[in-house]
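Internal tracking record. Fields below are filled automatically when a chain is submitted to the structure queue. Please do not edit lines marked as system-generated. If the sequence contains nonstandard residues, flag them in the REMARKS field before resubmitting.
Queue: standard
Priority: normal
Entity type: single polypeptide chain
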Amino acid sequence: MSKEKVVTINERIPTLKEQRKQRANRRLLFFLSFFFLLLLVMVYFQSPLSHVKSVTVEGNQFISDEKVVELSGIKGGTSIWNLDKAAIIDRLLDDEEIAAASVERKWFNTVRLVIREHARIGYLYANEHYYPILETGRYLDELPRLEYPADAPLLMNFEQGEALAELSAELAKVPPQLIERISEIFLTPNESDPLALVLYMTDGIEVHSTIRGFSEKIAPYPSIVSDLDPEKKGILHMRMSPYFEEFVVEEEDDSEGEG
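SYSTEM-GENERATED OUTPUT FOLLOWS
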């Protein structure tokens, strides 16, 4: 018959006391940690550590960082947790150049502003100044002196009025990759078409078209040009049915005529 070791209650009491003590210590440690964490959070919110220290701006091409920050109305010393994002976005969208905006908190004291500008579809050249035209049809103030636009076509011989407004609306429908291929657009009214246009493209092609329905007329340009002989120079007519008219170059007679 095997002998089993009998553990008396007196022998178990020290072990039970030690377990209870450990559990009590763990609870005390948890509450102390929670208290200090809560205290740190309260100190953070009440201290300058929670104030906006920097504002970063992304997505802007023409509007300066300084102007975007100024438009946002975010001031140094403002608690980063008291920012009214909706109000900031509304203030940014009040600017005619900004199409979309978002506000994000980054780390503990940095605000990130991300904007999208309205595309510039052209520049009106008038009185020796360049006036940016937005995809919305709005006109901006003239560019600073010595700043030459290269991201959109120049609009020549235009004045602010119906013709320019209609062309602006048409250009807004033209894909950006095609806009980039247009260097200059001249208004060349004649008896048969007061809205006639002459375009000079970046690839050297001269295009004749008209403002009325311009976005649809210019749409097939890339595919048409790809089929043209690059050695031939001429005019690509894009009004009704597109066709290419090659320049007629008269050969010069280098020999001197007899006197």
